[in-house]
Design goal:
ATP binding; alpha/beta; ABC transporter ATP-binding protein; binds adenosine-5'-diphosphate; 5-stranded antiparallel beta sheet; binds magnesium ion; 8 helices; ABC-type ferric iron transporter activity; nucleotide-binding
Length: 244
């Protein structure tokens, strides 16, 4: 039998305590290229800390992070964030206010000017912001800024996209549409996506797989409808029951 290719992102037994309190407890998950896994759970359960450890901005106490089979964090390895091939997107879009939209999108790109310009134009088209390149972030609506942040994170073709509640700063009215277009673009670009959310309906809408987290642990993993239809326990059922 041929070897299975390594999953794009592999996390094994990641743990982290703050001041003696374990907030991420033995978390394991893997995400294939082109797939979206939603790390779903209530506020405070350890989602952001998990994401930050995968990104390399928070140090795990123990565990392993591999991308395309390469160890990024392990017993003798701790590669810096910029060497991990990950793209990051957070709730506050954190665009550079003094840079144009085009310069924001080009920020993480290396190589010659013409190639950068082509990639910027391609991404602005994908996020439906052709012509917005010379503007500054403050001239854009919240939804437009969110799309610039998506284009910026995807520009260097990250192998893994890590997204922490990327839609929660947006108006309800806009959110569903932006979720759908974001998902289309993520699928086209083909990164492995780990998306953190506390909203079950967002996970149902976007995930290929849901990893349900509670008090630092993953309590259930599966396809959205399996997790929704067969919650592992009463608390999981109650969590999903607020879905609209
Ligand atoms: P979530 O993203 O699911 O809301 P977090 O990962 O942000 O959860 O936080 C999990 C727990 O860890 C929370 O109780 C939070 O207060 C605590 N925590 C997170 N970061 C730190 C830190 N740097 N120092 C101390 N406690 C922290
Ligand atoms: Mg969080």
């Amino acid at each position: 039998m041929p070897d299975q290719p390594a999953p794009r992102l592999e996390v094994q037994s990641l743990s982290r305590a703050f001041a003696g309190r374990t907030v991420v407890d033995d978390v394991s998950l893997s995400v294939a290229a082109g797939q979206v896994t939603c790390l779903l759970g209530p506020s405070g359960c350890g989602k952001s800390t998990t994401l930050r450890m995968i990104a390399g901005v928070e140090r795990p106490d123990s565990g392993l992070v591999r991308i395309d089979g390469q160890v990024m964090f392990g017993p003798a390895v701790n590669r810096p964030p910029e060497a991990r091939g990950v793209g990051l997107m957070f709730q506050d879009f954190a665009l550079f206010p003094h840079l144009t939209v085009a310069a924001n999108v080009a920020f993480g790109l290396t190589g010659d000017r013409a190639a950068k310009d082509r990639r910027v134009a391609e991404l602005l088209e994908k996020v439906n912001l052709t012509g917005f390149g010379p503007k500054h972030p403050h001239q854009l609506s919240g939804g437009e800024q969110q799309r610039v942040a998506l284009a910026r994170a995807l520009a260097p073709r990250p192998r893994v996209m890590l997204m922490d509640e990327p839609f929660s700063g947006l108006d309800n009215r806009l959110r569903d549409g932006i979720r759908d277009t974001t998902l289309d673009i993520l699928k086209e670009e083909g990164a492995a996506v780990l998306l953190v959310t506390h909203e079950p309906d967002e996970a149902m809408r976007m995930a290929d797989e849901i990893a349900l987290m509670r008090r630092g642990r993953i309590v259930q993993k599966g396809a959205p409808y399996n997790v929704y239809n067969a919650p592992v326990d009463r608390a999981a059922a109650a969590f999903f029951s607020d879905i609209n």
